[in-house]
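Hi W., the guanosine-5'-monophosphate complex you wanted:
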Amino acid sequence: MSLPLPRAAGPLPAWLWSGDEPRIVSVFQPIVDLRSGAAIGYEVLSRGLGPAQVPPQVLFGRARVEGVTWELERACWTAALRRISTLPATDRTVPFFFNVGPDVLSDPRFQDGSTLELLARHGIHPRELVLEITETSVIDDSEQLQRLSRELREHGFGVALDDFGAGHSGLVTLVHSEPQFIKLDQALVRGIHQHRYRQHLVKALVDFAASVSATLIAEGIETWEELNVLMTLGIRYVQGFLVARPALTPPRPSEEFDARRREALRTLLPISP
Ligand code: G
Ligand code: MN
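Structure:
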C-alpha cells in the first residue's frame, strides 16, 4: 500500500508537456491468437521522449516524487489517444489495451467524466479500449474495486487483470474485478518449460479461464521452449518479444514466427480445430 500522493501545484513540468504536446511516445505490442496468427488486441506502452526513450518505470518514479502522477497519466492517455486516432481503420479493428496506473483508478478525477470526454474528443469509443488494472492497485476496498470494475464495463471499457501471479493478492483482485482478460505475469512464463509446478498452475488457470469465459493471455514470452509448453497446456493468446517487440506502428508477427507457430500447432496439437 503506498502513501497518499502529494498534489502538484503550479505549472506542468516541462519534461512532461511541451505546450499542449505530451512528451510521451506510444508504442504498440500485439496480443496474438496462436490458432489464427491474428492480433486480438494491442497493448499500448508509453515511453518518455528524450535523447533516448525513457522507460515507464523511470517516468512514473519521477512523477511520484514530484507529485504529478495524475498529470503523467493524462499525458500518456493523450499521447496514446492522439496516436490511435491517426491510425488507419484497418489497425483499429481490435481493442487497445491501456495500463491504468494504480493510483489513478481511485482518483476521483478518473471518474468525473473527463476521461470519457478525452476519448470522445479523439473519436474513440470506450469499446475500443481494454483497461489493464494490476493486482497491486491501491484499491484495498474490495467493494470499491467491484463497483469500479462494473462501472467501467457499463461504460463499454473492457477490463483486464494485468501481471496476474506477480503479487500476493492476485486471487482476491481476480474475484473482485471479474475481468474479461487475465494476463499471466512474465515471472510465471519465464522458463516454464523447466518448472513442472508452474505448468500445473497454468493448466489449472486455463481451465478456470474457460469456465468463467475469460481470455487468458500469457505475457512476456521470449523463447520457443516457453511458447511450445504453454501451447500444450492450452494457452491460446500470447504476447512477448518472441511474437513481436513493441513498435511505433501496430506490428504484425514476423513471417518466421508465423511459420513456426503453424508448425507447432501441427506437431503439438494435432487434433486442434
Ligand atoms: O506490467 P506490464 O505487463 O504492462 O509490462 C509490460 C512491459 O513488459 C513493457 O515495458 C514491455 O516492453 C515489456 N515486455 C513485453 N514483452 C516482453 C518480453 O517478452 N520480455 C520482457 N522482458 N519484457 C517484455
Ligand atoms: Mn500491461
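Residues 1-6 have pLDDT under 50 and may be disordered.

W.
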